[in-house]
Write a structure and sequence with these properties.
209 residues; mainly alpha
């Protein structure tokens, strides 16, 4: 049974965990980039600053009732739910102040006739890149270790947290510890890569100031 655990079942769990972590991180990154492009102000900024995510379980059930479930649909729904739950909190924590500081520079660039693309690439992205990457790095660890949403929406998907839970229920504690350790390792490796890029970006920005 131990050899079986180290074979196909563990491989499927690792693949499922990596797919959800990468897809959810990509979706969260896309949300951040969209907000940076929109330059929210007025009511939209107020919504982002006060919005409180609903319960993961309620969001999971809501997505479960929408469209097809299983396989690719489940991967997408889990990733969308994780990104939506995390985005408002991470935006307020890491990006809101940076965006507020950028408003004057963006308005000046528009008055000088700079294009939308140039404003984003030359003004906004260099100053928000560090906050975005560090936010996604923090989020990726949670995405790798998610249990609630995957349990609701996963169907035939196997991830390391679900595998650890099933092994605990069957009293295979060493296998549960192995699955949890792999979860932390995968999340940590991906997060550290993004964090390194974030620190490098911040250092470059400080040198240009």
């Amino acid at each position: 049974q131990s050899l079986s655990f180290l074979g196909a079942e563990l491989k499927s769990a690792v693949i499922g965990t990596v797919v959800i972590m990468l897809l959810a991180s990509a979706l969260l990154f896309g949300l951040f980039v969209s907000v940076i492009c929109l330059q929210p102000s007025g009511w939209l900024r107020r919504v982002l600053m006060v919005f409180v995510p609903i319960s993961p379980l309620l969001l999971g059930i809501g997505l479960w009732l929408m469209g097809e479930n299983g396989s690719y649909g489940s991967y997408l729904k889990i990733s969308v739910a994780l990104a939506l739950l995390s985005f408002p909190l991470l935006y307020r924590w890491k990006l809101s102040q940076v965006m507020e500081d950028l408003q004057g520079q963006v308005q000046a660039a528009r008055l000088m006739g700079a294009s939308f693309t140039k404003i984003f690439l030359k003004v906004c992205w260099p100053q928000t890149k560090s906050a975005v990457l560090s936010s996604v790095a923090i989020f990726s660890i949670w995405a790798a270790g998610d249990f609630t949403l995957t349990a609701v929406l996963g169907f035939d998907i196997v991830t390391l947290p679900l595998l650890a839970e099933s092994r605990l229920q069957s009293y295979h504690f060493s296998q549960a510890v192995m699955a949890n350790s792999l979860t932390l390792l995968l999340g940590f490796i991906f997060a550290m890569g993004l964090w390194t890029l974030s620190v490098s970006s911040r250092e470059k920005r400080d040198q240009n100031v």
